[in-house]
Design goal:
Elements (H helix, E strand, L loop, with lengths): L2 H7 L6 E7 L6 H10 L7 E7 L7 E7 L2 H4 L2 H6 L4 E7 L14 E5 L2 E11 L2 H9 L11 H12 L5 H11 L2 E8 L4 E5 L8 E5 L2 E5 L2 H6 L3 E5 L5 E5 L2 E5 L11 E2 L1 H6 L5 E2 L2 E2 H15 L6 E4 L3 H13 L7 E3 L15 H8 E3 L1 H4 L3 E6 L6 H12 L4 E6 L21 H4 L2 H8 L3 E4 L6 H4 L4 E2 L1 H4 L17
Parallel strand pairs: 14-23, 17-20, 20-21, 21-22
Antiparallel strand pairs: 1-4, 1-10, 2-3, 2-4, 5-6, 6-7, 7-8, 8-12, 9-10, 9-11, 12-13, 15-16, 18-19
């Protein structure tokens, strides 16, 4: 997704990581490809696969570039990626710009061999760590914080006997949010930050082990989910099976999963840390209906993440649920809008209103968030132009008031419409007949007993954060 497009469409996705290790020695590139395809919603900017043969010369082969999975990886490139251990990545830039060299996995050659690393998340101390490395002679090829992680793992590997111990030592230095999939010459290693901010799960199909950002990707390759990687856990896969190290783990009450996985990021058919995403969004919709009842004829959701919450609103309120939008699934990764006057067209290209459904009706429109307000205003305008008598907006997240430092592209305070406007002012600005946001205290109903991070709504960060936006500090 280009920077221009991100300004228009609001929240950006996180990244998605996927790993596969076939103990029997068969090639895994096609499995990684389909796993990434299932994670495409987490990033449409760039993608890549790196593979190695644990039984042979252990040379790492890779293909990565800007573009969607099916744009970058074709049948020929998958055939050429020979190896039984593979790491894959889909990217949305939360740190570093839209450049081909920033595509992952990162492949680093060093004295102990070759590392391939895929990272989802954002480090809060990346700037200081990078400066330290530069002053000791490191030369950086990218502008992403993932390279800082890769350097630290490589350096620590020179002092340790095992690659997983190098990952552990690096985890003592890096701070922030991360889910990592690392391939060393003979091992696949997964690691999750101690707070559990970023998701990572383990799957298996016959003698193939998988690591994935979401369970839907494991299902896509015919695997079964074994469990989630625990916050702070390092899991190592070798020909002898799985080993676990949880010495970095925090107590459960200190953990902080990203609540936005359940509101927006994750695919509705995923299960993360034991919580069914579809169910959590149904609960969100019911909470909105309970908090903000209204007389209306139809409840509709904005595709995709607003659809299930709309169903929940309908179930609780008794107002019929309908499909008011057609989403164009074939809009490419770059839709450039060089002029302000052209921005409205981007919404019309992606969404169209089904006039027959909304004409003459009072509509409840459920969406996952309002960031800057532009997109929401354009959709309301489209609904009213199609004949909707009223449009009552319900948002399945609380108002964004604070930036995110952990990999979610929530912009600076000045760009957040809720930071400087009341709910009534926002309602008027977007042209809604009424507006209701999810109440902060209702978020816990979505995830049960899980401890979660809601800092973008409350300012209560689970760790110390920088005093400024670091998402593009290296550009």
């Amino acid at each position: 997704m280009s920077r221009l497009e991100r300004v228009e469409t609001g929240l950006g996705e996180e990244c998605g990581v996927f790993g596969a290790y076939d103990i029997d020695g068969h090639d895994v590139a096609s499995s990684v490809y389909y796993g990434l395809f299932a994670l495409q919603h987490r990033g449409q900017e760039s993608c890549g696969i790196a593979v190695t043969d644990t039984c042979g010369k252990r040379k790492v082969l890779f293909k990565k570039d800007l573009g969607l999975v099916n744009e970058v990886l074709d049948e020929e490139s998958l055939t050429n990626l020979k190896g039984n251990l593979g790491v894959g990545h889909v990217r949305y830039s939360t740190a570093g710009g839209s450049r081909a060299e920033n595509a992952q996995p990162l492949v680093i050659n060093y004295v102990k061999g070759t590392l391939a690393i895929a990272h989802n998340g954002n480090l809060t101390n990346a700037v200081e760590l990078r400066k330290e490395l530069e002053y000791t002679g490191a030369i950086f090829q990218t502008t992403i914080d993932s390279e800082v992680i890769a350097y630290h793992i490589a350096r620590e590997r020179l002092k340790t006997g095992k690659a997983e111990d190098a990952v552990k030592n690096a985890m003592h230095k890096i701070k922030g949010a991360y889910a990592l999939v690392v391939s060393s010459p003979r091992k696949m290693i997964g690691a999750r930050d101690p707070f559990g901010l970023k998701p990572l799960c383990i799957g298996k199909r016959d003698n193939v082990y998988f690591l994935a950002s979401e369970s839907c990707a494991i299902a896509a390759v015919g695997g079964e989910v074994i469990r989630d990687v625990l916050p702070g856990e390092i899991v190592t896969f070798t020909k002898d099976g799985i080993q676990s190290d949880t010495t970095m783990a925090l107590k459960p009450e200190k953990q902080a999963r990203c609540i936005f996985e359940y509101i927006y990021f994750a695919r509705m058919d995923s299960v993360i840390d034991g919580v069914n995403v579809y169910h959590s969004r149904i609960v969100a919709g019911k909470a909105l209906a309970e908090s903000y009842p209204v007389q209306a004829d139809l409840v509709v959701g904005v595709p995709d993440s607003g659809l299930v919450a709309a169903k929940g609103y309908s179930e609780y309120s008794g107002i019929p649920y309908g499909m008011a939008f057609h989403k164009n699934s074939y809009v490419g990764r770059t839709f450039i809008k060089p002029k302000q006057s052209q921005r409205e067209s981007s919404v019309k290209i992606k969404l169209s209103v089904i006039e027959e459904v909304v004409r003459g009706k009072r509509i409840v429109m459920v969406d996952d968030s309002i960031v800057r307000g532009t997109t929401c205003a354009n959709i309301i305008k489209m609904l009213k132009k199609a004949g909707a008598k009223e449009v009552h907006v319900r948002i399945s997240s609380p108002p964004f008031l604070f930036p995110c430092y952990f990999g979610t592209d929530v912009p600076s305070n000045e760009q957040l419409i809720a930071h400087s406007h009341t709910t009534e002012e926002i309602r008027e600005m977007i042209g809604a007949d009424s507006l209701g946001y999810m109440k902060v205290e209702k978020l816990k109903d979505m995830v049960g007993d899980l401890k979660y991070c809601d800092a973008c709504f409350t300012g209560n960060y689970p760790m110390d954060v920088p005093g400024e936006d670091i998402s593009h500090a290296f550009e």
